[in-house]
Write a structure and sequence with these properties.
18 helices; 2 domains; Arc Repressor Mutant, subunit A; 398 residues
Length: 398
């Protein structure tokens, strides 16, 4: 029997074909440029394309006809234990390009490996040894067993939680390490996590509506929704892999992330309960605050759009952890906001001098150390509660 090009099978076939194409593009780009996020996203796209295969072929009539039926039943198309960790490691490598896959990370893929072994045992028993349907005597595809679908949903939820934790951790570290944090923390990462959440919501919704996962006629809209979701992730992720590779100097973020993650959970200076020790700590903090303020005013280091915390620590002859602690405890802000405050002050000084009448706001912002219009506008509104135009119209009326 030839492939039946019905409306349902044809729609899923389009998504399947595009999924294969984008997975090849992503994998090729990842190998060619050593871009780890592209590799992981390529694997995810490939797995997603195969995820819809059973229903695509079901609507084409293959699942109900021989010899396709017996062959397709023994192929584990829906890798529910493999998709979640792949998504998780995509997030890991997207946020930290210095991330190295270690031996313990292989444990994340042990459930998927166990399911592969299970599928191979079923195939060998039914086809090679017994030469009759023993495991598949009930005539139902094991990929749609209730236990497997529920376990896959639990796995997906667990790795979403871990991905959010990872994102929050790197977000904290980045905003305390670089002055261009808004450029480093891709908006795409947030959108991807939302897409991850939508995937879980879809699975829960359709599982509740109809837990019989092998009922082809009643699952079409779920698989179309899933297809749109992975199609969006694949295209947006491919575009992001092109943009992010040149958005900042990798050595800056990689070196700092590696350093800060090792120390972010520890505190070098513990608050003392003894009055005289507490007084010395406060005095020490004030001294460091004064050193930092003097350094920023005298050197105008904030005008460097790629300023990182190690630049300040090197100038003051200490380590980045010390500077980060002084900024957090002494000024009550993170490093990114600390530097942006000086940039905003420098911008307002130029406005007071009337430079905004002969130069654009963006041009002045670049001179003060900002690297993009969006970053400047967000920082300005955060500091003044107004956008630049509103602020100047309010405070500098002609």
């Amino acid at each position: 029997m030839l492939f039946s090009f019905s409306l349902k099978s044809s729609i899923l076939l389009i998504f399947f074909f595009h999924g294969i194409i984008f997975s090849i593009l992503l994998l090729f780009k990842g190998l060619q440029t050593e871009n780890k996020p592209s590799l992981w996203l390529g694997v995810f796209t490939l797995l997603s394309a195969f995820y819809i295969v059973p229903f695509m072929l079901g609507y084409a009539g293959w699942y109900s006809q021989q010899p396709y039926r017996n062959i397709l039943f023994y192929v584990p198309f829906q890798q529910l234990f493999l998709l979640p960790p792949v998504l998780f490691f995509y997030i890991k490598t997207l946020l930290d390009k210095s991330f190295q896959f270690s031996k313990k990370d292989y444990l994340h893929f042990s459930p998927a490996l166990a399911y592969w072994v299970y599928a191979i045992i079923i195939f060998l028993t039914d086809i090679i040894v017994l030469k009759k349907a023993y495991f598949y005597e009930d005539g139902k595809d094991k990929d749609f067993s209730t236990w497997y679908q529920i376990a896959g949903l639990i796995s997906l939820t667990y790795y979403l939680v871990e991905s959010i934790k990872t994102y929050n951790r790197y977000r904290f570290v980045t905003y305390n390490s670089v002055s261009f944090a808004d450029s480093v923390m891709f908006r795409w990462t947030k959108r991807f996590l939302v897409a991850f959440l939508m995937l879980i919501i879809l699975r829960i919704l359709f599982f509740v509506i109809n837990p019989e996962w092998n009922e082809f006629g009643r699952k079409f809209w779920y698989y179309v929704s899933f297809s749109f979701l992975f199609y969006y992730v694949s295209i947006s992720g491919y575009t992001n892999s092109i943009l992010s590779s040149t958005s900042f100097k990798e050595y800056s973020l990689d070196s700092i992330i590696g350093l800060e993650l090792e120390t972010s959970n520890s505190n070098e200076f513990e608050s003392s309960s003894k009055p005289h020790e507490l007084k010395n700590e406060i005095q020490d903090l004030d001294n460091w605050k004064e050193k930092l303020e003097t350094l920023m005013c005298n050197t105008e280091m904030y005008k460097n759009p790629e300023l990182i915390i190690t630049d300040l620590s090197s100038e003051l002859g200490t380590h980045s952890k010390k500077i980060s602690q002084v900024i957090n405890q002494g000024f009550g802000v993170n490093f990114n906001d600390f530097i942006n405050q000086y940039r905003i002050k420098a911008f307002l000084q130029k406005v007071q001098g009337g430079e905004h009448n002969i130069q654009t706001f963006l041009g002045l912002a670049f001179e003060c150390g900002f690297n993009s219009k969006s970053t400047f506008n967000r920082a300005f509104k955060k500091a003044t509660s107004l956008n630049p135009k509103e602020y100047i119209e309010t405070h500098y009326k002609k």
